[in-house]
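Wed. Picked up where I left off yesterday with Probable transcriptional regulatory protein KP77_13390. The coffee machine is broken again, so keeping this brief.
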Amino acid sequence: MGRKWNNIKEKKAAKDANTSQVYNKFAREIYVTAKQGEPDPEANTALRMVLDRAKTYNVPKAIIERAIEKAKGGGEENYDSLRYEGFGPAGSMIIVDALTNNVNRTASEVRAAFGKNGGNMGVSGSVSYMFDSTAVFGVEDKSADDILELLMEHDIDVRDVLEEDHTVIIYAEPDQYNAVQQALKENGITEFTVAELTMLAQNDVAVSEEDQEQLEKLLGALEELEDVQQVYHNVEFIE
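Structure written out below (tokens, as returned):
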């Protein structure tokens, strides 16, 4: 699964390049998640997961607090959660998750981003069946053997635990997110390089250098869209 970790790092690096945009996207997601449930992360598991992910992207506390306060105040903005699926260069597969207050606008913008950058939209289900929802944690300054032993002591089954680039990566079923996090925290591990639910391709594919350049343009165009929250793909990038 090491290649999957590379794709996660690539996504994080791309987001780090435009922090203001990333902060705005997190503010929207935090607001929506807090408004849909309790604004208290202790009582709202979904909100706690968003805040965990926001922490790994260094989202300022002030932005998080403003979004939660806005939800507490009964903000009038309403957003729909949408998923688009499509294909990029060389038949690569892409999933786009969005939060929007204008479905027609977002659909048009996503379709245009695909069309102008060597891709095309697919129908619902045309791509997602090749991806698995996965809980992923990244821990530094630990060994994979120690982490695996720790999780086994807590009777937690995980998909994989591996060590790469001085980071231990834990892949688990999505419903094990809280159990894994709690087990780690009980053993003094409270800082994560990644802590999120993501969509991982069942099989990563390699493409030509030319196709990779085109794919990078397509992914960049999708990430730039204000309503797009997450973009997933199945390509193993050549570094």
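Quick read: The two ends are 17 Å apart (CA to CA).
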